[in-house]
Specification:
alpha/beta, Rossmann fold, five-stranded parallel beta sheet, two-stranded antiparallel ribbon, globular
């Protein structure tokens, strides 16, 4: 049975071996292990995701190559997790929409009424909750 896609994200190719695991970009990833963005990065790795940290000030985080922009990530994304203040997030939403993702997780502290309206305008499947708690709750 072929079901229509649930959002406008590009489909993930089942025949692409590099896409065998779910993918996530952690925007605002931090090198500080006490920060929730770093905890989320490590939790996604432990849950089996291919993780792509995004922080223009870092080269690597937790041994993973860090990307300056979500647009620089060379694979399709299942999930994007936003860990930046709303004013910064507003500047990044167009790039997230251009890149595409199945889910945009807007973590506590990253949301604002303006950001919420813009995610809707862009047709993003925004989830206003903590991706770190989600991945820890649903980990096998």
């Amino acid at each position: 049975m072929n079901l229509p896609p649930i959002d406008s994200a590009p489909p993930i190719r089942d025949d692409d071996p590099s896409m065998s695991k779910p993918t996530v970009a952690i925007i605002g990833a931090s090198v500080d292990p006490a920060k929730f963005s770093n905890k989320s990065l490590r939790a996604h790795v432990a849950a089996g995701f291919d993780v792509y940290p995004v922080n223009p000030k870092e080269d690597t985080i937790e041994g993973l190559k860090c990307y300056r922009s979500v647009l620089d990530i060379p694979v399709a994304l299942d999930r994007v997790s936003l860990y930046v203040p709303p004013t910064v997030g507003m500047k990044l939403l167009d790039d997230v929409a251009k890149k595409g993702c199945r889910e945009l997780w807007v973590n506590p502290g990253a949301e604002s009424p303006e950001l919420m309206a813009r995610t809707s305008d862009l047709g993003l499947n925004a989830i206003y909750a903590c991706s770190y708690l989600d991945v820890n709750t649903h980990r096998a």
